[in-house]
Design a protein that fits this description.
The protein folds into three domains: 3-321, Aconitase, domain 3, CATH 3.30.499.10; 328-502, Aconitase, domain 3 (2-Layer Sandwich); 560-761, Aconitase, domain 4 (Alpha-Beta Barrel), CATH 3.20.19.10. It is built from 26 helices and 28 strands. Bound molecules: iron/sulfur cluster. Residues 98-99, 143-145, 163, 165, 364-365, 428, 431-432, 453-454 line the site of iron/sulfur cluster. Keywords: 4Fe-4S, Iron, Iron-sulfur, Lyase, Metal-binding, Transit peptide. Residues 563-692 form the Aconitase A/isopropylmalate dehydratase small subunit swivel domain. This is Aconitate hydratase A.
């Protein structure tokens, strides 16, 4: 059996002693107690003896145990892997078909139609997986993070994935990080994975959840405290006695949504709940190994947990027993408040959130565990007993075929359907804009409630008028009965079919795994053959969906001068704004077609328009940024994007860097960057620069031409000179910062990180 086919227990038996050996070397060097994150990260160092170890400053070179791709970024990932000239992935790898399945009617028919619509993409991915030695999870298998939790994650594993909610696997004690496609491609090509050594944040939990409060409320509360950028370049560890009271899937909900804080990842120490889940998912044979290494590898040193304020950069303390159900949004996951405060907020002056709910959705990769569905079904059963059904459209997304088959077997699905729920395919669907919603429902401001994780405008149905408020599955299910956001099931009554008022009781504590084992459902996994070299990749040259990629040109050694600003964005500019999903998702494998959406959702800082700009060379207005960029490229003129704070937050969407590169962009200059997007820009050979003085953002005028000077002297930590040339002939010089290491500057000079890799394979 090759290392690529190893079961988790075989992998762990090889990995744990190796981690212990590396940590011993590290401990001799730094001689201080270690946090959980440090143990797992530093136990995966490529060079534990020589690696520089300064949190927030050093770039760690690590050896991940597994790489996972979802289908959208898997296309680009495999297209880029072809450019490395490798014959086979060097690290266990899997590809998951989950993002492209549209929600129209119900799970069965939606899956059938989506398989037909996306056959070119699935055929390409299936052939690439087989050729290069990756596992392939077919459409309908489930959402990547749920499948990883069920099959691949285990305490101490280092997993990287081309999706920002990869940290879901932290619920099983893995260090699981969302990365750009280029990072993933380099890793499967056999290079170490490089990441900024994260800082350390602890959430110290005491007490235990009860009543209507769920694991979701922990992360909704933390999101309110830390905000969407408060954990940038940090790992969040959930420690303390309360952490050991939460089920493994509840932990996964919390670590999944840690992505909304900008965290590198989030993790829990190993405990009995993880062993219970591993056993229920057929990996019980890991237990003796985990127990053997638990204190050494899978929990913080005792001194750290006893005095966290001394060892973490920041500590948040939460008493689970006192935590109330929360609800966050709309438009940002850090707009948090206890549910009990929402009714008053809706009545307050200036409120813009509609009280009436237009649709309710539960499930997704974040909240579709057996426990979640059981608690939602408990609420549904209470409604049935009083003759009530959901008064708003109610959509249920099982996270995986295994969850779907199990809750179909055990009755939860029947209960949710009896409430009026429509069960969608085991896929992302409405969570990523693949929701065919009646346009009449989205034309005017409308509120939806979901148990999802991300709620930026347009995220779910493509409409800026839709406001997504996020809560736990049991709260969302309760809200379907009242149809209004001002309802609080803990204090408010409903009217039963008999005309009498009644109150819901809090759902009973639910089993964290099924009493009998999970039902596997239909077979959805295709293992790669032992040797795939003779397999031909399925790519039609006339395809609208898949386009083979060519290496980017190397930097020509000259400064970038006279660059127009393709768009200066104002306010929140997420990767959803830079590279919108929804209907564009179908073109993700065809970069040229896809790039027409560049910056379509971003706000023009000068005019306030969304996705509109002016050609700075010709004065033509009303263009999309992609149109302007194509005109500049045709004129042989490089251009620049100016971004606001935390530019590129949100999904780890590599196309937000690929599209500007394809269309001739040279640099993005922002007040600050989100971590993954900054890394993606670097990998594609673009310059990611930030203002030394953030106020210089305001000095750029819409018809300025920008020079970047002295690029042949670019060096780590050295500022970059930038000149704004104003239309009146005047100019001013400002200074820019960057975070490029020496190796990353090679990417810029070679044209991309892949070009550097390509050279090393040739
Ligand atoms: S967050 Fe949504 S789109 Fe992303 S993997 Fe989860 S279900 Fe899919």
């Amino acid at each position: 059996m090759s290392a690529l086919d190893e079961s988790p227990v075989v992998m762990a038996a090889r990995l744990y002693p190796e981690m212990a050996r590396k940590l011993e070397i590290v401990r001799r060097r730094i001689s201080k107690p270690l946090t959980l994150a440090d143990k797992v990260l530093l136990g995966h160092l490529d060079d534990p003896a020589g690696q520089e170890l300064i949190p927030g400053s050093s770039y760690l070179k690590l050896r991940p145990d597994r790489v996972v791709f979802q289908d959208v970024l898997g296309q680009t990932g495999m297209l880029q892997f072809m450019q490395t000239l490798r014959e086979r992935v060097a690290v266990p790898t899997s590809i998951h078909c989950d993002h492209l399945i549209q929600a129209r009617v119900d799970g069965a028919s939606d899956l059938r139609i989506s398989v037909l619509e996306n056959s070119e993409v699935y055929d390409f991915l299936r052939s690439a997986a087989a050729k290069y030695g990756a596992g392939f999870w077919e459409p309908g298998a489930g959402i990547i993070h749920q499948v990883v939790l069920e099959h691949y994650a285990f305490p101490g594993a280092l997993i990287i994935g081309t999706d920002s909610h990869t940290p879901n696997a932290g619920g099983l004690g893995a260090c699981a990080v969302g990365v750009g496609g280029a990072d993933a491609v380099e890793t499967i090509a056999g290079l170490p994975w490089e990441v900024l050594y994260p800082k350390h944040i602890a959430v110290y939990l005491t007490g235990a959840l009860s009543g209507w409060t769920a694991p979701k409320d922990v992360i909704l509360n933390v999101a309110g405290q830390l905000t969407v950028s408060g954990a940038t370049n940090a790992i969040v560890e959930y420690i303390g006695p309360g952490a050991r009271t939460i089920s493994a899937t509840g932990k996964a909900t919390i670590t999944n949504m840690g992505a909304e804080l900008g965290a590198t990842t989030s993790m829990f120490p190993a405990d009995e709940h993880m062993l219970t889940y591993l056993d229920a998912t057929g990996r019980g044979d890991l237990a003796p190994l985990i127990q053997q290494y638990a204190s050494m590898l899978f929990e913080p040193d005792a001194a750290v947990e006893a005095d966290p304020e001394r060892y973490y950069d920041r500590v948040i303390r939460i008493d689970l027993s006192a935590l109330e159900p929360h609800i966050v949004g709309p438009h940002s996951p850090d707009r948090a408040r206890p549910l009990s405060h929402l009714a008053a907020e809706l009545k307050s002056a200036g409120n813009t959130i509609p009280e009436t709910i237009s649709a309710a959705l539960i499930g997704s990769c974040t909240n579709s565990s057996y426990e979640d569905m059981s608690r939602a079904a408990d609420v549904a059963a209470q409604a049935r007993a009083h003759g009530l059904k959901a008064v708003v459209p109610f959509l249920v997304t099982p996270g995986s075929e295994q969850v779907r088959a199990t809750i179909a077997r055990d009755g939860q699905l029947d209960e949710l359907e009896a409430l009026g729920g429509t069960v969608l395919a085991n896929a992302c669907g409405p969570c990523i804009g693949q929701w065919h919603r009646d346009p009449r429902a989205t034309a005017t401001p409308n509120a939806i409630v979901t148990s999802y994780n991300r709620n930026f405008p347009r995220r779910n149905d493509g409409s800026p008028a839709t406001m997504n408020l996020i809560a736990s599955p049991e709260i969302v299910t309760a809200l379907t009965l009242a149809g209004r956001l001002s309802f609080n099931p803990a204090t408010d009554s409903l009217i039963g079919a008999d005309g009498k008022p009644f109150m819901l009781t809090a759902p009973k504590p639910a089993p964290e795994v099924p009493p009998t084992r999970f039902a596997p459902g239909r077979t959805t996994y295709v293992a790669p053959p032992a040797d795939g070299r003779d397999i031909t990749l399925s790519v039609d040259p006339a395809s609208e969906r898949i386009q083979l990629m060519q290496p980017w040109a190397a930097w020509d050694g000259r400064d970038f001068t006279g660059m127009p600003v393709v768009l200066k964005t104002r306010g929140k500019t997420t990767t959803d704004h830079i590279s919108p999903a929804g209907p564009w998702l179908r073109f993700r494998g065809h970069l040229d077609k896809f790039s027409d959406n560049l910056l379509n959702g971003a706000t023009n800082a000068y005019t306030g328009e969304i996705g509109k700009t002016t050609n700075g060379l010709t004065g033509e207005s009303g263009l999309t940024p992609a149109q302007a960029a194509r005109q500049y490229r045709a004129a042989g003129q490089a251009w620049v994007v100016i971004g606001d704070s935390n530019y590129g937050e949100g999904s780890s969407r590599e196309h937000a860097a690929l599209s500007p590169r394809l269309l001739g962009g040279a640099a993005v200059i922002a007040r600050s960057f989100a971590r993954i997007h900054e890394s993606n820009l670097k990998k594609q050979g673009l310059l990611a620069l930030t203002f030394v003085d953030p106020d210089d953002y305001d000095r750029i005028l819409d018809d300025d031409r920008i020079d970047l000077i002295g690029l042949d002297r670019l060096a780590p930590k050295e500022p970059v000179e930038c000149r704004f040339n104003h239309a009146d002939g005047s100019s001013e010089t400002v200074w820019l910062k960057h975070s490029y290491s020496d190796a990353q500057l090679q990417w810029f000079r070679a044209g991309s990180a892949l070009n550097v890799l390509h050279k090393s394979a040739a």
